[in-house]
Fold this protein.
Amino acid sequence: MIKLTNIEKVYRTSSIETLALTNINLTINAGEFISIMGPSGCGKSTLMNLMGLLDAPSAGQVEIDGRIVMQYRDKELALLRNQQIGFIFQSFHLINDLSVLDNVEIPLLYRKGDATGPRSVGASRRQLAQEALEKVGLSNRMKHFPGQLSGGQKQRVAIARAIVGRPSIILADEPTGNLDSAMGNEIMAILQQLNTEGSTIVMVTHDETMAKKTHRLIRLFDGAMVGDSKLISDLRFGISDVSAGNVISEPSNPKS
Amino acid sequence: MIRHLFKLIWNKKRAHSLLIIEIWASFMVLFGLASLLVHNLSNYREPLGFSYEYVWVVDLNNNQDTVAVAEKTQRIIQRINAFPEVASSSRMSDNSPFSANTMNNNVERGNRKTMMDFYVTDEKFADVLEIPLASGRWYTPADSIGKYRAVVINQKAKEKLFDDEDPVGQLLGDKPKGNDGSRQQKIVGVIDNFKAKGEFMTNMPAIFQQLDAKESYHKKILVKVKPGTDAVFEAKLVKAVTAMATGWSVDVDHLTESCENRHNLTLVPAIIFVIVCSFLLINVALGLFGVLNVSITRRRGEIGLRRALGATERSISWQFVGEMWVLATFALVLGLVLACQFPLLNVFDLASSVYVIAIIVAALIVYLLVTICALFPSRQAAAIQPAVALHEE
Ligand SMILES: Nc1ncnc2c1ncn2[C@@H]1O[C@H](COP(=O)(O)OP(=O)(O)OP(=O)(O)O)[C@@H](O)[C@H]1O
Ligand SMILES: [Mg+2]
């Protein structure tokens, strides 16, 4: 589904160069639910951005569905972002001047006029946005503006916006980071539900218990992949390498 | 998408009010400038109505001499015509072409009444200035002894008094009055245009009345010289004329020069106005560009987000251009309310078509301006990677 080969990402400003990611090789298969963990600043959001086609790597190759997207032009990238990928941002990124419903509708607006996608017009757009909001339990807040919502509610709006276009891949950057555990569990339940419905999900989290609920855990440290372990969502095994997981030296893991 | 745009604009109406005012102000400046230019241009497009090449104006001034002025004038004209360099000549009132003098008369016909430029000329006037006749004829010496005073009017005067009727043969004024004005005016011919003040003059209603040779007023003589005649002849002419009447003075003007001076009287202030307005406009454009640049840069996060959700770079720039068009339309509606007062209240006595064209021109430039001002910053903002744009928020 997503394949990263020899990815390197360097942020260059006039004065400093930051090596945010180096030598990342990662294949994510359709239907997987993957969590990414690692200390703050280790490059998790950077990795998500590359997978979500929101940024270009400094070196290496990104493939989506077997297509190498490096040579893609703006229009083709936009199409992929719109149809294949639903992004849930670490800091929501809702448009404050638009109501909840209008915010959720945005991905569908950019679908109009392109030949491959369903031509979603007014009423049906509205319908889909309402359904997405119902799914995240926000059907009673559709006319509200983001400024009038709590953090958890905002996050749920962001999830509704990510799933409204029924993308095959959902990339969630700390979807539960700003929430208490009850709300976090609720969000997690929504993601698990989407996963059982067939979506491939990649989620960044700081929360081990959330990570345990996924199929596979990637650990990052200082821009490098230091762990890739298959999990069985069974607590007896803990978070340890089970089978295919080739655990590399894991300095951040207290167990090793 | 359009509904989406309107919602977005409506929800930020307060932030947008400043922009609307700015656009409104630039529209008003443009409207003023365009009115001036369109007015002068539409005047310029009207034919002048006569030809002035090789025509000189010999202005006779009798000064203190009051004895037999009319006879002396007639003799001088005969002398002038006798020069081989002179092709033809015509005597007329002081308001010769391109001069600063004007004469107006209220001309009545039945219950219609209109202000007209009033010229007194002799029979050769149309010939000297090569004025073509639209209908009828110019007056002849035979007309001077008729029951009526022969007059010629121009097309504009005909429109004012006659609509579609044929004016030739019609009488003007309701009853005979005054001493030699006891003769009522009768129209013998119609000419097209007569823009005596030059190309930039508005084509006004005009009436030409036959000059009485025995009068002592109206001592300007239009002299058409043969091509190649130069200043040497001018000196000779002045000398001959002053020798014939002691105490008289003579001024000679060449119409080609007077015409140029006249045009400069219009052009110079217009050019200054255009320059001042251009600077004003550049300022407004820069201001608009600055305001938009800031507001679009501030919305980089939104741009990044929209791109992340599947917007192409093009649809981003069009979104901002669309927003600006909506704002510009609001500003134009405000501006139109004001601009419409000019033709409605007839503030500057210009044709209303001038204002209409000026409004259209100004509106087009405003749309062009906001398009450019929205397109460039939004293109720039859309060209950066979505992740970077989002990171900046
Ligand atoms: N736009 C940028 N310009 C320069 N440096 C950047 C930029 N974005 C990220 N970085 C740097 O790259 C590194 C990785 O950042 P990233 O945001 O991916 O971390 P993260 O793992 O998501 O951290 P957190 O858990 O706090 O969200 C950091 O050192 C950061 O300073
Ligand atoms: Mg992050």
Q: What stands out?
A: Confidence is low (pLDDT under 50) at residues 234-245, 247-256 of chain A.
